[in-house]
Amino acid sequence: MSLAVTLTRAQVGVAAPQVLVEVHLSGGLPGTAIVGLPEAAVREARDRVRVAIQATRFEYPSRRVTVNLAPADLPKDGGRFDLAIALGILAAGGQVPREHLDDCEFLGELALSGALRPVVGVLPALLRARAQQRRVVVPRGNAAEAALVEGIDVRVADSLADVCAWLRGAGALETPVATVVETGAATGLDLADVRGQLQARRALEIAAAGGHHLLLVGPPGTGKTMLAARLPGILPPLAEHEALESCAVRSVAGQTIDPGHWRQRPFRSPHHTASAVALVGGGSLPRPGEISLAHHGVLFLDELPEFDRHVLEVLREPLESGCIAISRAARQAEFPAQFQLVAAMNPCPCGYAGDPRGSCRCTPEQIARYRGRVSGPLLDRIDIKVEVPRVALADLGAPRGPHDEDSAGVRARVIAARELARARGGRANAELGAREIERDCALGSAERALLERAAERLDLSARGYHRVLRVARTIADLDGGQVCIGRAHLAEALQFRGLARPAPTAV
Length: 507
Hints:
By secondary structure, the chain is of the alpha/beta class.
């Protein structure tokens, strides 16, 4: 029987569906046909595989070779199928044993010399293979990435010849060695570097403790970017499954994963000239954008009003759903996008509206037009809005005081508050649904009356009303883990909500 089947996996977003490579040898004029919706790179595999087999001192069949990639209705692209196709041809010709292919999956692109080249998207494929308890062979260039996944038999190979020798029992393939990983959040940036800005530091701590979105508004040079860049350093370390999800997105995007820092939360800061596709992902072959690369981490948008309004509007759905679905004529893909948004902006075009020195000369119309670049629906999805005023020069040169706390101290309180939220509802406070809010954010009669009066005065939407409750719940968790939301907790949450869109004042 001149039929052999090998196993591999395709890439669709961060999913890795199973692909069966069926190879049949038959009579007729010699030639190779690859069917099953192959893209150009897969169709070209017939030439790469033929030369690689010959370079490895095996015989390429002088018969009709038909390669079927099943399921037939799933588009296949890239060179990830080369190794599986080559082994299927060799097994169909009796040059490697078929029985050793049944419980093993193969990923890798072949060079003309027979060497194996790394491919993108290995991590999602390994996670799916682990769920089905299969062995996997990957190129040595993917060894560091493969070592992150525990509980699976992974082997790394340098060439097609090495894999064939292993299948015939004439050689061994190495298992990737896991690098010692860091579980801390050390980024080299410490919150102690920020002087003053007590309210902004408090807002940053609350945002970290509850996973809330944050907007920093202030003149140039007041420390908005410094504060945002230090947020990852006070966030809890990623759990293993969260780190693997985040790394899987980077793997699909073709980015290098540092095994020594893979548990650190990502921090993405795209330039304000970024397009909507760069932010949410897309392309003819859908790839993840900045919001997906920030999955389980921080997305920082500096100079928020300078972004194109259309670009900012595409953030609205992912901020609510935590994922982004990309649909094209021939492809559909879904990427995770559960990120924490931190944005920074100036109060006016020149940046000095409200500055006590009175240096702003912008007209009320110019200020209104500038702030209007950020839509109300997007602002409504940001939980905490805080002013970052100018710091006195005397404070910048003063010795570090008791309020200039370092990241380690703040991070300890953040982790304690997160653990309270996880124990209570199984998730961060910012992710609480309507039923969880009713259960975990119940108010007394006096607190409810305060919230209703404030909601009328601030013209809060239903979304804004619930977000105030979530922030108040986080403040109560930071306040020694208070079971009930108090009046002070609610008042502070309302204070951070009141900066939605202040009316411009005449100069």
